[in-house]
Amino acid sequence: MRRTMLYLPGNNPNMLTKGHLFGSDGVILDLEDAVAMVEKDAARILVSKYLKQGEFGGVEVTVRINGIDTEFWKKDLEAIVPMKRLDGIRAPKVDSAETVKILDEEISRLEDKYGVPQGKLKLFCLLETAKGILNAYEIATASPRIAAIIPGGEDLRADLKTERSMDGTELEWARRFVVFAGRAAGVDPLDTVFSRVTDDEGLRKETQFIKQLGFAGKSIIHPNQIRIIHDVFNPTEAEIAKAQKILAAAKEAAERGQGAVTVDGKMVDTPVVKRAEYVLVRAGLA
Amino acid sequence: MTINAVKREIPDYIEGYGKVRHYQGAFARKPEGAIAGAKLRCFNNDVTDKRVSSIKEAIKASGLKSGMTVSFHHHLRNGDYVVNMVLDACAEMGIKELTLFPTALFGVHKKVIDHIKSGVVTKIMGSVNGPIGQLVSEGGMQVPVVLRSHGGRPRAVMAGDVHIDVAFIAAPTADKYGNICGTLGKSACGSLGYAFTDADYADKVVAVTDNLVDFPASPVSIPQTKADIVVEVPSIGDPAGIVSGTTKVTRDPLRLLISRYASQLIEASPYFKDGISFQTGAGGIPLAVTAFMKEAMLKKGIKGGFGLGGITGYFVELLKEGLVGKLMDVQSFDLDAVRSIGENPNHIEISADWYANPWNCGAAVNMLDVVILGATEVDTDFNANVNTEADGALLHGTGGHQDTAAGAKLTIIAQPLLRGRIPCVTDSVYNVTTPGEVIDAIVTEYGVTINPRRKDLLDAVSGVKDLPLVPMEELAARAKKMSGPTDPVRTTDRIIGVVEWRDGTVIDIVRQLKK
Fold first, then answer.
1. Class for domain B47-242, per CATH?
2. Which of B249, B250, B252, B254 should one mutate to test binding to chain A, selecting the residue with the greatest count of A CBs within 10 A?
3. What is the ipTM of this complex?
4. Is residue B466 less than 8 Å (CB to CB) from chain A?
5. Would an 8 Å CB–CB cutoff place A212 in contact with chain B?
6. Topology of domain B253-489, per CATH?
7. A102 with A162, same domain?
């Protein structure tokens, strides 16, 4: 599950130590925007040591490297790929399949060099330009490493020559498109951050909206956002009970050789069964 | 020297304190004899007005002389003017060698340092926070400070260990005949619970008020039958320091995480059922635990019995919403609590004796299911230190720590594993305030650590979803690994603090810091 992926500044030892304790599904150790130019080297060394030490509990650990248009990205990869406790790389400003190819090749080279199983490291692509959004499907299918595509927030707004609004109107189309592209490609569409960290109600509303669109989760910048998002994504007890009922009925029907059955007066066919299975996955029961 | 029940080596006699009764276990010592009392007094109808014109007149009328013991209560907290007012007057009147017996001292009382240096105050029995604590820790007093819990203090008075010559009671409202009320007036502080024992057992009681009302004042916390003298002053305190505005639940994610674990532990315990009683206090973590418990109570349809101790607006909300039936209030922390205790008959003012004294016919703490406490450090035996910092300086009072821990069925210490780089879990605490015998669980950001003594609790929380269980050895090892080695505190042999267990035995001593 990738309901919540928490950004941790790569130059903050306190947060790197404690960030995984808050119960998010993943953490993103950030070498890019959270780190000032003069601290890039220090942050890279620190993050590398933390990955080596490997105390992140059971969460999915990724690192946001610097963009391939910077001088840092290769050094970033060199420092983190060999470390055991790394599940994936979040790449900023991916705007075409070509960007994915460049990243893929370098990661593969390093995996070979350091004896890491080929393809172990997943790629999480940030689509932070209009071009990136338009190429979303192409990006999502450019490598088997791709685990997720994520629309940008501030950078995308800047590229669209617009500003942040309370209800996120300016991102709405990009969000819908990323969900379609991600689902079509079989990778997770993950939403961008919600930056008003004390606006719990606003976060809840936005999460309900993006969940309804079909996103699998959200990137987050504060531990207090985790519980609210999980609350929205976690199925209710009634939903779980219904899903269990549907699956039991479907199983019984299959055993009797029947195709479709009805539960509570509604027909249960394959899509309904699939949805019920997904409910149990989200509830941590499957 | 004797090694006591928490493995501390304590002298059998301490200069300036006297013969030591050694700590033998949380419930080992039983009282003997009768309650010690105040002098009998007689007022007839020739005195219908107890007022005098000034603090100095009040001191004179009380018969306060050099070498005596004066007591104060701390309901005005960091807004209090009365302690400084009285000690300044004593200094001007040439009174010296006083024993100060406050229920607690605050930063606002740092002036006491001048009075210690000039010899007006030569002994303190009570908490010494901040700069006074630093002074004492560095050897600034000739005799050791004696630290007692909120319940240990009234016990000491009733047992005759301490005799109060004159009690000065900060009275937010009073009349000329000495009826005292805490809930009205510009300096209203709500409960006057800590002052009750002083009013009952001092030879002379002086009410200091800035809101004199017609006789008889009402409602009455401390009645005219206890007060000898009334003095009106322009102001007894700064309202901004007396009560806080509204108490808000923290947004610090680490504290919220710890609070959530503590709340989950309570929910999984056998005590989370209708009638549950709890004390959570006013700090960031305790308040957040209360908020999470409220959520859980609403979800599971559970109604609490009573809330105890220092009361905040948050507890008042629980009372109003019917999530607790009563509040037993020894100290009201904010304006909502002050208002509520004045208006709501289910919000009860209780004395420190009623709250926490182990030597009466039953303190409120005995009826407590759950208490959430903090500590500066705990050790692998679950002993807790609240009196000193890791650097060995005496900086905090005991408060109700010992009493609630001994009384509650589930005592939880909830705090981060490290404060800055200082580990809060160690092999052996620098000073034992509360023994591991009465502490059931430690909650940190890494999860819940159950005292192995409580196998029932361990069974109850095993397998609870999203509640990590961390054995004590692992927790201590983690703290050590993260903080690195710490230098031992360097002290001289001189004893500057005596920490009493609530029954009057000495549980630990604190030595002077080496400069």
1. alpha beta
2. B254
3. 0.87
4. yes
5. no
6. Glutaconate Coenzyme A-transferase (3.40.1080)
7. yes
Whether A285 contacts chain B with CB within 8 A = no
- Residue of B295, B229, B183, B297 whose CA lies nearest to B86: B229
Interface test with B, best of A4, A18, A50, A222 (most B CBs within 10 A): A18
Which residues of chain B are in CATH 3.40.1080.10 domains?
Answer: 47-242, 253-489
Give B159's DSSP letter: T
Instruction: State the residue range of the domain holding A85.
Output: 4-233
**How distant is the alpha carbon of residue B265 from its chain centre?**
25
pTM of the model: 0.93
Whether residues A224 and A242 fall in one domain:
no
Which CATH number covers residue A105? 3.20.20.60
Per-residue pLDDT of chain A (286 residues; tens, 9 = 90+): 999 999 999 999 999 999 999 999 999 999 999 999 999 999 999 999 999 998 899 999 999 999 999 999 999 999 999 998 999 999 999 999 999 999 999 999 999 999 999 999 999 999 999 999 999 999 999 999 999 999 999 999 999 999 999 889 999 999 999 999 999 999 999 999 999 999 999 999 999 999 999 999 999 999 999 999 999 999 988 999 999 999 998 888 888 888 778 888 888 888 888 889 988 888 878 7
Q: How many domains does chain A contain in total?
A: 2
Tokens of B158: 């009733």
On whether both A68 and A154 belong to a single domain, the answer is yes
